[in-house]
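User: For a benchmark we're assembling, each entry needs the component sequences followed by a predicted structure for the full assembly. Here are entry 17's components. Please fill in the structure.
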Amino acid sequence: QVQLVESGGGLVKPGGSLRLSCAASGFTFSDYYMSWIRQAPGKGLEWVSYISSSGSTIYYADSVKGRFTISRDNAKNSLYLQMNSLRAEDTAVYYCAREPVYWGQGTLVTVSS
Amino acid sequence: DIQMTQSPSSLSASVGDRVTITCRASQSISSYLNWYQQKPGKAPKVLIYDASSLQSGVPSRFSGSGSGTDFTLTISSLQPEDFATYYCQQSYSIPYTFGQGTKLEIK
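Assistant: Structure for entry 17:
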């Protein structure tokens, strides 16, 4: 069955960096585009980034453009989100998703001094 | 970016009630509209995709309709497990924006 498992979240100071990973299994990872979506505590869902199946096409939300980098390794069935220059407003649960059906359980990123 | 506006933001209803949630897009999105249910501490679960297609395994009391800019999610007879927050999402153009959510509470 399809599984998406995020890791790499944690507590980081403002201005710091973090790299999230998402391990995919149960499907041919290289056939699908993937996304990162986040949810701040008590708030709604915010789409963050998209990467095409080959990795050749990438998009970002304006709120993270220039600070976050999405990537994938199809040989390792893995999706990544490199987050730099983190701000308090980046605090959220980050989900990787094979939209719209399959979502991971999420990993919490807390940006605080 | 396409803005998605849901109404109402919150709703109180009783078991057995028929409930409708609406979602309006700031421009036409054809039928590229998903509906999700989210319970506290859990990832969203897709209920409806392409505006009216019921995701496998989702009870038939859930239905979706609409195209263009106006969409609805209907729950025909509320069950206790349906009390949750519901989100619409357009998948017509990136960024795939979400509505702000509708919290469905027990009356």
